[in-house]
Amino acid sequence: MKFIGHDEAWEEWRSAMAGSRMHHAWLLAGRKGLGKASFVQSAARELIGVPRDTGDHPDILTLTYGPKNKDEAKKRDEGKPFELARGIKVEQVRAIQRRLTTRPSMGTRRAVIIDPSDDMEVGASNALLKSLEEPPEGTFFLLVAHSPARLLPTIRSRCRTVRFPSLDKNAMDDLLRDLAPDVDIATRDAAIAAAAGSPGAALSFVTLDLGKAAQLMRQIVERGDRDFSLRGQLAGVIGGKQDIPRLQAVLDLARAILAERIGQITGNPRRFVDTHAELVRLTGEQPTYNFDPGLLAMEIGTLLASAGAASERANG
């Protein structure tokens, strides 16, 4: 993937590296799908002084989601597919800290990457804070965060923040035309709307082929769905498979389409705001409750239909 919008981040990083004293903790903040993971791996290699395209390096420690439990860890160790934990655990942070009691293996610097740092459990965050307060010599912490507000304020205050901007619609359109030239306009427009400036998210939407779902959602929110026919079509397009990434993408798409409409109506937008909040709730619950896809599609359609009816009333 081409990573657009990283120029300022690289300028800030390299300027700091060229200075007399490099800050020991960095927070790389921005929406998911902006290429922060690629940036941080390349930045860590520049920091250590090894080529970008090399494999694992003993002085670059990456902390991310581990196995859900001991049974899943056993599957991982056996080379089998395993289920990931929902957050980064305190035991993982403490394991990294034990490694920090020794000197770097091949030089004077070591990088510790935590991705995503905003998914650390409370105990993990508190444990990491101790290392940030008293960093080992030559150790630099690189924290990737999609929602930095979820981090402890005391962690944020000890980091130098580099922000990764979302892309505007024109840049997103150019990128998708380049990387996915065979995608139809409806699907591309749906991907751009739902991704909200995130190239990675847009490409994920393209692969999920949600163009028809976007068309139906817009029709529902624009004119309602008194006979339930559009909701039925939406359920058919979404399908009956329990595919969590796809269902999450559908919910993101519905929220994006509502956000488009809020600025287009006159009168009180309260119903739209309430509907958006309900979609946010469903998005948060979906991974845990595993809603039936058909029922979820009808629920989304009903929320959009009620917002559409409110729009009709607001516009007279």
Order of helices and strands: HEHEHHEHEHEHHHHHHHH
**Number of domain modules:** 2
Query: Numbering strands along the chain, what is their spatial order in the largest sheet?
Result: 2-3-4-1-5
Kindly report the average pLDDT value: 86
What ranges have pLDDT less than 50 throughout 5 or more consecutive residues? 310-316
Describe the fold and architecture.
This protein folds into two domains: about 5-165, P-loop containing nucleotide triphosphate hydrolases (Rossmann fold), CATH 3.40.50.300; about 210-315. Helix 13 (about 270-290) runs antiparallel to helix 14 (about 295-315). Strands 2-3-4-1-5 form a five-stranded parallel sheet, with helices on both faces. The protein has helices at about 5-20, 35-50, 70-75, 90-100, 120-135, 155, 170-180, 185-195, 200-210, 210-225, 230-240, 245-260, 270-290, 295-315; strands spanning about 25-30, 60-65, 110-115, 140-145, 160-165. By secondary structure, it is an alpha/beta fold. The chain is elongated, with a radius of gyration of 22 Å. Strand 3, helix 5 (about 120-135) and strand 4 (about 140-145) form a beta-alpha-beta unit. The protein is built from 14 helices and five strands.
